[in-house]
Specification:
The complex is a heterotrimer. By secondary structure, chain A is α+β, with helices and mostly antiparallel strands. Chain A contains 15 helices and 17 strands. The radius of gyration of chain A is 31 Å and the shape is elongated. The chains are: A alpha+beta, B alpha/beta, C alpha+beta. Bound molecules: magnesium ion (MG) and zinc ion.
Chain lengths: 486, 490, 95
């Protein structure tokens, strides 16, 4: 179970801590009124505050504070009623003020936890060290010109929540599960859209290794700004192996910042970060201590949605789902809601099978999303109802489902239109049986002589004659009577 | 018409109201005065055309009856306030040519009140200095001369030296200043005018080039207490763009000038008699106490035991904040850029060429005291001492209503005198810095002349947001002092 | 405490201010004087004293989440010493 790197000198384990920068969902920036919309023309969503112009001052956005508290509550974390913004001083081309306004020794959110859903259905709790609010930097583009870097400040000042885990993760897989779960919680809370491609969720991974059995922490390296879960896993895997190789060759790991190259699938030292860091943090004199009331926190708490862990537990208890299915369904609020709409007043297991099976398959095949599903929850529920009341056989239902995906029509309408209703009229079935019996006297005789396995062949012929619409149970029952004369 | 430049703001306001002259006439008179006194180097940028346009608009407003509290009055703006479309430099090479696309809240409020700006006034570079000798655009000359040596050029004080010199020389009726450790009060004292640093948070810092954010405050500099009251009324007020601006109504400061200070207790701090305090200054201070006593107030000796630590505290906190505040001057988005082969080389060359010696020195000190391993010993320690200094004042104000001290330890000194050692130069602010550390209002007014014919100022310090008592006491003292002296030839 | 040349070089580097070698001695002397001057604070007993960050006796005011700014690319770029294609430009940075 445990992830072990087999080295020449023995077994090694990995120690991983993740720092996730999650863009706060807000209309305007943390300290200015400029828009946070993604994808605008360069330097168009920039206020003079974001560009660090002389005399410009920050004023905090209340929604960002609320979102940070909401996220803290979602991570079962301690909320600090008094927190302080500090300046982190360093020079960089996309850092217009020459400092980042962040939180240092007094973050808005303290210790919390996050539960990993392991693939075998078990869970594992990972500690959260803290969450703080800070401003994003702008963007430096290095590949537009042979001798110049281009600077776009649209992102400058956008609110970020930095969520720092404890060094509790032990494998690339756990790191992936952590990110998946964190993303899920953020999306449930509506505090971050979790879009890693657009950079609204970025991950720094702190990686070190140690021989199995050793308890202290060895020197870690920080891999900066990895923008997909898969890359994070690849980066950790590479970096851990590198550490083991260095140690086993008798070398030492130097604490440093590294960059992940997703093409070569390797990490390398960051030249621009080679200079010694001394951020000279101090409380930002332009901002007073951020003080929030317990009532404000309580109000946010009262309005929290049911979160994935609670929902998963409820799905297992209320609907009898297994841990795996429940875990998959609750990963996104929208899929959980979809399932509940389908399951409402119906057999939950059947609903679960349809959603997890045909529905997800159709979504993959059509490239559609939960936001714009191939079949609506109401229609899928309607289809299940048509099976329940005998209108459709399981086989017919699959055909109807395919037509629903194709046409977008409601199942009842399709049944009417295509005449797909299951035939339960005994007269009609009897007539069809009679035709088959009459045409195959020799086979009837073989059955009567004891070759009862041939009955299946008769069922097939009758279903064929009724274009599959005959109720298969009724066909079997009547065939037995007629052929065997029972 | 010839003495239009002699008018106070109050007189100008009343005479404009009576229609004795127009704003255009008043503005023209000051434009001529500015031209005549260019030798003082008080202005970095003169804006006569703009001013005349505004004056015309002011006269129209007056006719329409929509004039504001300072309509048509000629003022100057310290070149630390960003002014839309008009070069703003903070007297630094690094900002030369910078035209802000925005207006500072305070200068915007003055414009909204109808005041007419004649241009941008010289200062110490980034407001760092006490003699206006650190300006990239050259030193400002004090219009006052020593009787013993009328040829010597004296400093006007700093950092608001251009403001003080221009007001004293009748180039403008009043000017904005900013005060971080004494930059309104000390030059006011050196130039024989009145200036007040209001309570921290009273005036918005939005659009004012930052030096030390936890200390910087804007305030008026004028020739009378009443003028300061009028002008502060137009500068002050809550600004949602400044998180440290206080949401509090602005009182009618002028109405506080009742002339009645009977029963008020005046604190006289025993620690404000350091070695090296000029005897003449001490005498004027004693004279001030007598005036207030004669008007019915009671002097009370108080103790502000941490006074001597205010200066070292200031010289940790202010440079620390400045080292961070001035990081944005990196040659990237505005101002000077000196090319370099790499980004870091561009930064280092730009900042070495763009900042003068005093600014560089303070940035380095600030960087040092915040750096790893030193933060607690210097910055954190200074913040604790700062609290003790503020507590001293809070305790004193339990028994007294206002505190009277000298403004500066000496009269104006000569250009080039005593500027070799920065620490000696900093001693100029020994009486003004404690007030800044505590965020309290402090006013300086001229109280007499030295034997060499130079003005000497006294400082009145008030409770937080009690500028009214400060003005009231200052008004009484102004009457008693009857300071009518003016620089030779003005 | 006195600052040696290496320390001055280091803080000048942190502050991104170019200092020529021949300036270092003088600067180290000047800065050492200042540090010696401010070190008199060590005489003050500050046990149990809360550091004072701001004199303003209030807490942080907040603003509504409304887009009120941006959309003025030209004004933001107007003072730029160097720009291209709507971007600020600097000497190329190698990461
Ligand atoms: Mg981090
Ligand atoms: Zn961060």
């Amino acid at each position: 179970m445990a992830y072990i790197i087999q080295g020449e000198t023995g077994d090694w384990e990995i120690v991983i801590g993740l720092e996730v920068h999650a863009q706060v969902t807000s209309k305007s920036k943390l300290f200015s009124g400029a828009s946070t919309e993604f994808g605008a023309e360069p330097n168009t969503q920039v206020s003079f505050v974001d560009a660090g112009f002389p005399g410009m001052l920050p004023v905090i956005n209340e929604i960002c504070v609320e979102q940070a508290v909401r996220t803290g509550l979602g991570l079962n974390a301690r909320i600090n009623l008094t927190s302080v913004f500090a300046r982190k001083n360093y020079f960089y081309a996309d850092l217009p003020q020459g400092y980042q306004i962040s939180q240092f020794d007094k973050p808005i959110v303290g210790e919390g936890e996050l539960v990993l859903d392991m693939p075998d259905g078990s869970t594992r709790t990972v500690g959260i060290e803290r969450l703080h609010l800070e401003q994003d930097a702008g963007k430096s583009i290095h590949d537009m010109h042979p001798s110049k870097s281009f600077i776009d400040l649209n992102r400058s000042g956008v609110a970020l929540m930095e969520v720092v885990s404890k060094p509790d993760l032990r494998s690339p897989e756990e790191a992936g599960l952590y990110l998946t779960k964190l993303r899920s919680i953020l999306r449930y809370l509506g505090t971050c859209d979790g879009n890693m491609q657009e950079g609204s969720m970025r991950c720094d991974a702190n990686v070190s290794v140690r021989p199995v059995g050793e308890t202290g922490l060895r020197t870690r390296c920080e891999i900066k700004n990895v923008n997909s879960i898969r890359y994070v896993q690849q980066a950790i895997e590479f970096e851990a192996r590198r550490h083991v190789d260095v140690y086993e060759a008798g070398g030492d790991i130097r604490q440093e910042t590294r960059l992940f190259d997703s093409v070569k699938v390797e990490t390398r030292s960051m030249r621009s970060k080679e200079q010694a860091h001394d951020y000279r943090y101090f409380p930002d004199p332009d901002l007073l201590p951020l003080v929030i009331e317990q009532g404000f926190v309580d109000g946010i708490k009262a309005g929290l949605p049911e979160l994935p862990d609670a929902k998963k537990a409820r799905f297992m208890a209320e609907y009898g789902l297994n841990a795996y299915d429940a875990g998959v369904l609750v990963a996104e609020r929208i899929s959980a809601d979809f399932f509940e709409t389908v399951a409402k007043g119906r057999d939950a297991k059947i609903a679960c099978n349809w959603v997890m099976g045909d529905f997800f398959a159709a979504m993959n095949a059509t490239g559609k999303t939960m936001e714009n599903p191939p079949v609506s929850a109401t229609d899928l529920g309607g289809l299940i109802d048509l099976i329940g009341d005998g209108t459709l056989s399981g086989r017919l239902a699959k055909d109807v489902f395919a037509l629903m995906v194709e046409t977008g029509k409601a199942p009842a309408a399709l049944v009417e239109e295509k005449g797909l209703r299951q035939v339960t009229d005994t007269g009609a079935i009897e007539a069809a049986i009679d035709v088959v019996i009459k045409a195959n006297p020799d086979k009837v005789q073989q059955v009567r002589d004891g070759k009862t396995t041939l009955l299946g062949w008769f069922t097939g012929q009758v279903m064929k004659a009724t274009q599959g619409k005959a109720n298969p149970a009724m066909v079997n029952e009547m065939l037995a009577k007629k052929v065997l004369g029972e | 018409m010839s003495n239009l430049t002699d008018l106070t703001l109050a007189e100008g306001r009343d005479k404009l109201a009576k229609g004795e002259f127009t704003a255009v006439e008043l503005t023209q008179a000051h434009i001529q005065a500015i031209e005549a006194k260019r030798n003082l180097n008080a202005f970095i940028v003169e804006t006569p055309e703009l001013a005349l346009e505004e004056a015309k608009a002011s006269d129209l407003r007056r006719r329409a009856g929509t004039n504001g509290a300072m309509d048509g009055l000629a003022i100057g703006i310290k070149d630390l306030f960003c002014t839309k479309g008009v070069q703003t430099t903070a007297a630094s090479h690094i900002l030369e040519g910078f035209k802000p696309p925005y207006e500072s809240t305070v200068s915007g409020k003055l414009k909204a009140a109808g005041a007419i700006s004649l241009g941008k006034l010289n200062l110490d570079e980034f407001a760092m200095g006490s003699s206006n000798q650190t300006s990239y655009f050259g030193a400002v000359e004090n219009p006052w001369k020593r009787k013993s040596d009328p040829t010597a050029k004296l400093v006007p004080g700093g950092s608001s030296g251009g403001s003080a010199a221009a007001v004293a020389a009748r180039m403008v009726m009043a000017a904005t200043g900013t005060d971080t450790g004494g930059s309104i009060r000390q030059p006011a004292a050196f130039c024989g005018i009145t200036g007040i640093k209001p309570t921290y948070g009273r005036c918005s810092r939005f659009g004012v080039v930052a030096f030390a954010s936890s200390l910087d405050q804007a305030g008026p500099m004028a020739r009378t207490v009443r003028d300061c009251a009028i002008m502060l009324g137009s500068m002050a007020g809550f600004d949602p763009n400044d998180s440290t601006s206080v949401n509090m109504a602005v009182p009618d400061f002028e109405a506080a000038l009742t002339g009645d200070i009977r029963g008020l207790k005046i604190g006289i701090p025993k620690e404000y008699r350091p070695v090296g305090l000029s005897e003449e200054v001490a005498k004027v201070w004693e004279q001030g106490v007598e005036w207030l006593k004669a008007a019915g107030a009671t002097p009370v000796e108080i103790s502000l035991p941490h006074t001597k630590y205010a200066l070292p505290t200031y010289y940790i906190i202010a440079p620390a904040e400045c080292s961070s505040n001035l990081a944005r001057y990196d040659g990237l988005r505005f101002g000077l850029r000196v090319p370099g082969k790499s980004l870091d080389e561009m930064y280092a060359k730009t900042r070495a060429a763009g900042f003068g010696a005093e600014v560089r020195r303070r940035i380095l000190i600030g960087t040092y005291v915040l750096s790893a391993g030193y933060y607690d010993a210097y910055y954190a320690k200074a913040q604790k001492v700062r609290r003790l200094i503020a507590d001293d004042f809070a305790k004193a104000f339990e028994t007294v209503d206002v505190i009277l001290t000298p403004t500066a330890p000496s009269a104006a000194f000569g250009q080039g005198e005593g500027s070799d050692d920065p620490v000696t130069m900093w001693l100029n602010d020994v009486f003004t810095i404690p007030t800044s550390m505590a965020g309290l209002p402090g006013l300086s007014l001229p109280a007499g002349l030295s034997s060499d014919g130079l003005p000497l100022g006294l400082q009145l310090i008030g409770r937080p947001f009690d500028e009214e008592t400060v003005f009231k006491v200052a008004g009484v003292m102004e009457t008693a002092a009857n300071f009518t002296a003016r620089p030779e030839g003005i | 405490m006195s600052l040696d040349k290496a320390t001055v070089r280091n803080i000048a580097n942190l502050a991104r201010i170019e200092v020529r070698d021949e300036e270092l001695d003088h600067l180290a002397g000047e800065l050492s004087n200042i540090i010696t001057f401010v070190e008199q604070l060590s005489e003050v007993n500050t046990d149990g004293v809360e550091p004072m960050t701001s004199v303003a006796a209030m807490t942080l005011p907040m603003r509504k989440d409304v887009v009120t700014d941006g959309g003025r690319h030209d004004a933001v770029m107007a003072n730029a010493p160097e720009a291209e294609d709507g971007f600020f430009t600097v000497p190329k940075v190698v990461e």
